[in-house]
Amino acid sequence: MTTRIDSGPRPNVTPSQTAARTTPPPARPFKAVMQASAGAVVSGAEGTLRQLPGGPILAAAVRATPAQPSAGAANSAEGSSGTAGGSVTQDEHTQIESALDHQAEQNLYYLGLQARISAESRAYSAMSNVLKARHDTVKNAIGNIR
Questions:
Q1: CA–CA distance from 24 to each of 20, 29, 30, 31, 70 (Å)?
Q2: Which of 7, 123, 137, 144 has its CA 20 to 30 A from that of 16?
Q3: Cα separation, 46 vs 94, whole angstroms
Q4: What value does the mean pLDDT of the chain take?
Q5: 55: nearest Cα among 79, 80, 82, 88
Q6: CA dist., res. 107 & res. 109, Å (int)
Q7: Are 46 and 62 in contact (CB under 8 A)?
Q8: pTM check: above 0.70
Q9: Please, which pLDDT band fits residue 85 given cuts at 50, 70 and 90?
């Protein structure tokens, strides 16, 4: 008696020679892509900082400085005239202030709503506990009568 295990059908795989794949060079080098994305992040941060109170000063801190100072800045002892890049007009300042005031009002409204809901939940829990205590008392009294 033999206990041979049949390996099944023979695999139908044959090796073949293939050509090496050549990848075309990228349209933009990796360094250029990284510099562009870093520039986009910095300009986005700078634009966001301009919207905040005191933002132009913060935006100047984020802004990249040029590698070579300009000839006018090199000859001038005091440097720039004190502007930190893009100025915020009075209208933009008013819009920012109104947006911040609106956000503060919404925060106060939601805090009040949260306090009311919390008070309602506490009242419901207290009422539920009282009703449960009454129910248990009546149930025990009926049980004692039997």
A1: 13, 12, 14, 17, 40
A2: 7
A3: 20
A4: 78
A5: 88
A6: 5
A7: yes
A8: no
A9: very low
